[in-house]
Amino acid sequence: MKNVFLLTALLYVNLNTGLATPPASQDTGANTSPPPTVSSPFPLQLEARVPFAPTAFPSAGRTYLCYELYLTNFSDRAMTLSRIEVLDAERADSKSVVTFEDDRLDTVLKRFPAGAPGKSGARDLGPGTTAVVFMWVPFDDPAHVPGQLRHRIVTTDASIEGPVIGTRNTELHVLAPPVRGANWTASDGPSNAEDNHHRRGVLVMGGQLVDSRRYAIDWMRYKDGGSIAYGEPVFAVADATVVKTRDGLPDNVPAPVATFHPAVPITLDTAGGNTVLLDLGDGQYAWYFHLKPGSLQVKAGDAVRRGQLLARIGVSGDSNVPHLHFEVSTSTAVVAGEGLPYLIDHYRIWTADKQWETRTRELPLGGTLVDFGEGDGDTRGLAPNR
């Protein structure tokens, strides 16, 4: 019995020692003083995990990491998140990369379930409540992207050291554009905007939380305020094998979201509309959604060449305006995989300075106006139509 009491005492000391907060980073300018510890023999009962590690990708001269941090309260009392620090795990001094707190923390948090016990704010986690933190970490210099990141999660009265993750989880495929010509808008493309339905599109599929649309882009084309994407051709982004296709679903009548009535009931089977799926290799798959019925030029098993015509843009499935939904994912099942970043070999973007700027081997961010013209393009010197 003496040994049992000794073991219990040692466990108590070790658990309380684990409540101490490591020294905070010195360069963020934020209030990083250690929070008061909880009067408990156990560490903070907050699970922190990153189900799918990110891969750094470049865009418009910067490099980005995009991923989700899941926090679940496994205690019998409410807790309030105060700060999340992202640290360079490869440095002995655990240099801070970025800190999320106050309003900045509010904008990246989404609590599940929304009506869970606790206060009304997303930072307040009642017992059994989960919060998804939509992480978006930019770097001005790609050489400064750490190989590994570590997380510190701070509540109002304690803190924990969270998961260590890599930053180069998958291969970045260099792809041809799926569409051609000028005046393409990367609608709901990669970003951390709260109203980006792709970025916030976390679903439970096969018993796991996934976000296949993490880097998806709705390619839309406008002229004089109206959509002119209908019937535009879409092309193979790489030499690939067609995994499967779906055709025969009717086009919808375009309409604002508030008055939109799809031509067929929207289910998991019909949401993508008429579809082409390409196997890019390395467990990566390119999805083309909302294609025009009867326009598909390929079938399952076909070998296609980079730049080959596949189909034309329609407005089928869960689509209220003509556009191409394009994404790269880890799964051959609709929205069941993890969304992956990729690079487009060559394009131009319309800058804030109102000029076209050439970008090479990057991924356009959400809202970017893009020219995929051949060579120097057919829009040199011309302002875009929107």
Structure, explained:
- By secondary structure, the chain is mainly beta.
- The protein folds into two domains: 44-166, Immunoglobulins (Immunoglobulin-like); 174-372, Distorted Sandwich (Glucose Permease (Domain IIA)).
- The chain is 5% helix and 38% strand.
- It has helices at residues 2-17, 102-106; strands at 46-49, 57-59, 62-73, 79-88, 96-101, 109-112, 124-125, 130-139, 148-155, 159-166, 174-175, 181-187, 203-205, 208-210, 217-223, 226-227, 233-235, 240-246, 274-281, 284-291, 303-304, 309-312, 324-329, 343-350, 356-362, 369-372.
- The strands form five sheets. Strands 11, 12, 15, 16, 18, 19, 20, 21, 23, 24, 25 and 26 form a twelve-stranded mixed β-sheet that branches. Strands 1, 2, 3, 6 and 8 form a five-stranded antiparallel β-sheet that branches. Strands 4, 5, 7, 9 and 10 form a five-stranded antiparallel β-sheet that branches.
- The chain is globular and about 65 Å long.
- The model is unreliable at 1-32 and 375-381 (pLDDT under 50).
Annotated CATH architecture of the largest domain: Distorted Sandwich
Structural class: mainly beta
Helical segment count: 2
Helical amount among residues, as a percent range?
Answer: under 10%
**Uncertain residue segments:** 1-32, 375-381
Under CATH, the topology of the largest domain can be stated as: Glucose Permease (Domain IIA)
Characterize the overall form.
globular
CATH class of the largest domain: Mainly Beta
Relative strand content = 35-45%
Average pLDDT number: 87
**CATH homology group of the largest domain:** Glucose Permease (Domain IIA)
The largest β sheet comes out as:
12 strands, mixed
Radius of gyration: 24 Å
Number of domains: 2
The string of secondary-structure elements, in order, is HEEEEEHEEEEEEEEEEEEEEEEEEEEE
- Give the tally of β-strands: 26
